From TrEMBL:
CDD domains: RNaseJ_MBL-fold. It comes from Marinobacter psychrophilus. It comes from the Bacteria. InterPro entries: Metallo-B-lactamas, RibonucZ/Hydroxyglut_hydro, RMMBL, RNase_J_2, RNase_J_b_CASP. This is Beta-lactamase. Keywords: Exonuclease, Hydrolase, Metal-binding, Nuclease, RNA-binding, Zinc. SUPFAM superfamilies: Metallo-hydrolase/oxidoreductase (SSF56281). Residues 20-214 form the Metallo-beta-lactamase domain. The keyword DNA damage does not apply.
Length: 460
């Protein structure tokens, strides 16, 4: 099965009908372009996109099976990574030997990717081409332009993928944040200009399609976090996603204003902050304390940012709750702030962790309890989706990056904003954009691979 010069196809192998392990293919004129290559971390007892149930003993790191394109890798002209979240970039070290194509991405994502590849002794094998915002690059028959949007990680990019038979706008993960604090912002004109040129299809993030209103800006969190930290008497530990560099900058400002020293606990936090410095995205004024020194400071001078906001085992916050962290020991009267919301499926883990902390006499503050916002999602709510459709005016809307409920609501929103046609499918479906819009269901098998004992195994 191969697209000819009149065809323009979209084929998701991961990330459509689910949230995580994104792997997308665009086909035209005998060639394929891959967009994103991510992982997921399965939770026992939760359904996978294929309807199977995750169970104990599965590989802890899983990714979309790339067999369809690996068998045709001579037709794969490149891999574009939109941003540095694990569900978009994390599978590259595992799957690149099956793909062996150039990788195109932005500066910050390239910095994260290089660190991942170095762990696998692959750093000098993988060709990485660093692209700047608004750059255009001819990759096989696809002319790809990197467009500025905002998300909960520095410098995410949407893509305009141009071909002689039609153009596709691929949103990546995004939100409309007028105060992103770190990295580039966005411009409405970028997207209204696309409408003037003509967009055959918009392939777009559905994560928060069921959420009314507009997402909260990162710039709006300072007041709430300052209030929560200012009233705390002992040590303060803030749990948040390690990739949110803007949140770290806000917390660093809060530390300065409250006379506290800030340190990071957790490998992903340390790695992300280091990458941000290397990419020129870290304010020189935000000095961090060596974690080994935190235990020697008076409690009221300590502000710790820790991994583990989802209750995951072996993370820094879990070790603090267990009393097994080598650098910091929590005591009654300390405060833990969850500057994050639960990812669906993690509610029980988080509740157990909160109960454990409260049993130690630690005060726990969650985003749901606060009158002022202390967390902001990185994905568009309904008002943002409607705005983007009004700006881009695609002929076809293709919801992705969501479960069935999210994508169904997304499709209805697109129709309500005037999009003539919507196509809703799942991994393995072929979305035919040109010459005649339509779908062919399950044209290829899809599935998951897992990393177990230093080898890839198929997950049943």
């Amino acid at each position: 099965m191969m697209p000819d010069s009149n065809d323009l196809w979209f084929l998701p192998l991961g990330g459509t009908g689910e949230i995580g392990m994104n792997l997308n293919l665009y086909g035209h004129d005998g060639r394929w372009l891959m967009v994103d290559c991510g992982v997921t971390f399965p939770k026992p007892g939760r359904l996978a996109a294929d309807g199977s149930m995750h169970h104990h003993g599965e590989p802890p790191v899983q990714m979309a099976d790339p067999a369809f394109i690996a068998e045709r890798r001579e037709t794969l002209c490149g891999l574009v990574i939109t941003h540095a979240h694990e569900d978009h970039v994390g599978a590259v070290p595992y799957l690149w030997p099956l793909l062996q194509c150039p990788i195109y991405t932005n500066r910050f994502t390239a910095e994260i990717l290089r660190r991942k590849l170095a762990e696998f002794n692959m750093l000098h094998r993988v060709p990485i081409v660093v692209m700047e915002t608004n750059d255009r690059r001819q990759i096989g028959p696809f002319n790809v332009q990197w467009l500025a949007l905002t998300h909960s990680i520095p410098d995410p990019n949407a893509l305009m993928i141009r071909t002689p038979v039609g153009n596709i706008f691929h949103s990546g993960d995004w939100k409309l944040d007028d105060q992103p604090l770190i990295g580039h912002g966005y411009s409405k004109q970028t997207f209204t200009d696309l409408a003037i040129e003509g967009v055959a299809a918009m392939v777009c993030d559905s994560t928060n399609a069921t959420v009314k209103g507009h997402s909260v800006s990162e710039g709006a969190l300072h007041k709430g976090l300052l209030s929560a930290v200012k009233t705390a008497e002992g040590r303060v530990v803030v749990a948040c996603f390690g990739s949110n560099i803007a949140r770290l900058h806000t917390l660093a400002a809060v530390a300065r204003e409250t006379g506290r020293y800030m340190g990071l606990l957790g490998r992903s936090l340390v790695n992300m902050s280091s990458a941000a410095k290397a990419a020129g995205l870290w304010h020189n004024a935000d000095e961090l304390i060596n974690p080994a020194h935190l235990g020697y400071l008076p409690p009221h001078e300590v502000l710790v940012v820790a991994t583990g906001s989802q209750g995951e085992p072996r993370t820094a916050l879990r070790r603090l709750a267990n009393g097994s962290h080598p650098d910091v020991e929590l005591e009654a009267g300390d405060t833990v702030i969850f500057s994050a919301r639960a990812i669906p499926g993690n509610e029980e883990l988080i509740a157990a962790l909160i109960g454990q902390l409260q049993g130690m006499g630690v005060k726990v503050i969650t985003a749901e309890q606060c009158d002022l916002p202390i967390h902001a999602s990185g994905h568009p709510a309904q008002e943002e989706l409607e705005a983007m459709y009004r700006w881009v005016q695609p002929a076809i809307a293709i919801p992705v990056h969501g479960e069935e409920e999210h994508m169904a609501v997304h499709a209805r929103l697109a129709k309500q904003t005037g999009v003539p046609k919507t196509l809703v499918g799942r991994n393995g479906d072929l979305f035919m954009i040109r010459p005649v819009p339509g779908m062919r269901r399950q044209i290829t098998e899809t599935g998951r691979l897992g990393w177990l004992k230093q080898a890839l195994v198929r997950v049943v």
